[in-house]
Amino acid sequence: MITSMNHITLAVSDIKRSFDFYRDILGLKPLCSWDSGAYFLVGDFWFCLNTDPNVRPDPSYTHYAFSVTQEDFQSLSQRIISSGAKIFKQNTSEGNSLYFLDPDGHKLEIHIGDWQSRIAAKKQDAGLWQNIKWFI
Predict the structure, then answer these.
(1) Is residue 15 located within the same domain as residue 42?
(2) At the N or C end, where does the chain have fewer CB atoms within 10 A?
(3) Does residue 132 belong to any structural domain of this protein?
């Protein structure tokens, strides 16, 4: 039985550039780094970077969202924007979100809220969601 997510590894083209972005701009806690990779801690979640000469941006909506507090949202958003990160989408769902690209074009999001707040909002107004089957 699966008990939780273990880690995510993103392929990057330049480990130093990506390490600096995730540590200095997003504020992730580094665990270790080496010539071709790095490990970070995000809360209790293990986040990995690994160099790959074939890395290319994914054109799909697939993205990775990081939780942020209401108090930190504006300052972190400003730091991300000031770093030159490209914004790829405007927020249209509950909670504050900023959607942006990392140096290799990985789609990222900082978000205020959690799954409970998203479900509660959708139970109030489903918006564009159709034929919802609730399991909770």
Answers:
(1) yes
(2) N
(3) no
31, HSE (Cβ side, Cα atoms, 13 Å): 13
Both tokens assigned to 16: 């130093």
Q: State the Cα–Cα distance between residues 44 and 91, nearest whole angstrom.
A: 26
Q: Are 108 and 101 in contact (CB under 8 A)?
A: yes
Angle at 22 between CA 17 and CA 24, to 5 degrees: 85
- The residue range of the domain holding 92 is 61-124
Distance in angstroms (rounded) separating the CA atoms of residues 34 and 45: 19
Query: Considering the domain boundaries, does residue 14 fall inside one?
Result: yes
pLDDT tens string, the chain, 136 residues long: the values are 988 899 999 999 999 999 999 999 999 999 999 999 999 999 999 999 999 999 998 889 899 999 999 999 999 999 999 999 999 998 877 779 999 999 999 999 999 988 898 888 888 888 888 898 889 8
